[in-house]
Design a protein that fits this description.
The structure is a single chain. With 367 residues, this protein is α/β, with parallel strands linked by helices. It has one domain: TIM Barrel, CATH 3.20.20.70. Helix content is 43%, strand content 14%. It contains 16 helices and 11 strands. Strands 2-3-4-5-6-7-8 form a 7-stranded parallel sheet. A 4-stranded mixed sheet has the order 9-1-10-11. Helix 6 packs across helix 9. Bound molecules: ligand V47 and iron/sulfur cluster.
Length: 367
């Protein structure tokens, strides 16, 4: 049935709903039978969420790009005095929020001119003015920075943010859990143990979170698998992760490698994530880094979510991403339907909102 005989034992395990080992998935990064791999991942996706593909009406806000770090792969961060440096006022931040949004995704640089109170105020002001808007804010890298400038524990920072209205943490800052890559690309940023410790602390406080992998630069396939294994292990412990989001590196001006990885590598990575992360409910096809075509193909390779409308993406577009900076809800729905899937609007915690058509049909049934 499969052109690559290595897929047979994986398929047998998946059908029996048994866990696949790191040694078993590693060779799949080189399989020539990409369609066979996709079939296995799609089987898991359909078992978990049927034909449904979700999206969220959200907005990304990046309040400041001033950053004390200078990660080698990052085109977004800036330093004071450079023409592209910016810091938004509270009015600017609030003007980007509106009641029809379900989620606001707030992340930015580590700005040493801003006290923690400023970051906290962003969450509390947005929450106060737009109580129905779910706030997903600050990566583990920012949480670590806040704990250091406040000289307090991560738990204290997270509790204060939660009290201010924080709903969940985004998955950024994980990059790839490899000391070899960290030393070369982001030597002053937290590594795997601290990132995992912060997400664990969040889960223990009832704050759900996402997870990411930055791939397609200098990492090896082995390092990708180690990364997935660490996420799967923490999920076994806490169950707090909502989703996994593979982020394809955009070379921009940093050019760690000359070109973005291939669409085939993207699809293999999505499919392998779906197969390996058996304890994750959601795998995101992030249209911003994948581009619309690959993002919709990924919906047949195990992904069940497209992220959202975003409105104003800055991080990947600073690195010259070719995708649009935002997408209308109707266009996201069209993309999902073009992949023969059924679109469903969700919130930050993946709760499905009934569409107006469903509500209308329900009313008719009750009448
Ligand atoms: O941590 C930075 C990555 C991340 C580049 O949780 C780059 O729902 C590719 O984490 N090419 C931030 N990636 C974005 C992020 C995210 C995005 C969407 C949804 C969610 C979520 C989280 O972006 C950073 C870093 O890993 N990044 N520069 C680049 N040139
Ligand atoms: Fe700063 Fe994040 Fe860019 Fe690193 S990746 S330089 S921490 S904004």
């Amino acid at each position: 049935m499969f052109k690559d005989s290595q897929l047979h034992p994986i398929w047998a395990k998946v059908q029996r709903q048994e866990r696949v080992s790191p040694e078993e998935v590693l060779p799949l990064f080189k399989t020539q039978d990409v369609l066979g791999l996709g079939k296995i991942a799609n089987h898991i996706k359909e078992r978990k969420t049927g034909d449904r593909v979700t999206y969220v009406v959200n907005r990304q806000i990046n309040p400041t790009n001033l950053c004390v770090l200078s990660c080698r792969f990052c085109d977004y961060a800036s330093k004071k005095g450079r023409p592209n440096a910016y810091s938004m006022t509270m009015e600017e931040i609030l003007s980007k929020c509106s009641p029809e949004l379900r989620e606001v995704h707030i992340v930015g640089g580590l700005n040493h001119e801003w006290p923690f109170e400023q970051y906290l105020k962003i969450v509390s002001e947005v929450h106060k003015k737009f109580p129905n808007l779910q706030v997903k804010a600050y990566t583990a890298v920012e949480i670590d920075f806040f704990a250091r400038i406040e000289k307090c524990s991560v738990k204290e920072i997270l509790s204060r943010l939660k009290d201010a209205g924080l709903m969940c943490l985004p998955g950024g800052g994980a990059e790839v859990f490899s000391e070899r890559v960290r030393k070369s690309l982001f030597p002053f940023k937290i590594g795997a143990p601290r990132w995992l410790e912060i997400h664990k602390a969040a889960h223990e406080l009832g704050i759900r979170s996402n997870s990411t992998l930055l791939y397609g630069h200098m990492e090896t396939f082995e390092e990708r698998v180690v990364h997935l294994k660490k996420l799967r292990d923490l999920q076994d412990e806490t169950g707090g992760f909502l989703s996994f989001i593979p982020l394809a590196y955009q070379p921009g001006k940093t050019k760690v490698v000359d070109r973005q990885t291939s669409a085939i590598d993207d699809l293999r990575t999505i499919a392998i994530s779906r197969i390996f992360l058996d304890n994750f409910d959601h795998i995101k096809s992030y249209w911003v880094t994948l581009g619309e075509e690959t993002a919709s193909m990924a919906l047949a390779f195990g992904a069940d979510d497209l992220d959202g409308t975003i409105f104003e993406e800055r991080i990947m577009h600073a690195a010259e991403a070719a995708s649009p900076v935002g997408m209308a809800k109707e266009r996201l729905e069209r993309l999902i339907r073009s992949a023969s899937r059924v679109p469903a609007e969700r919130d930050a915690l993946y709760k499905i909102y009934p569409s107006s058509k469903d509500i209308h049909n329900e009313r008719l049934a009750l009448a």
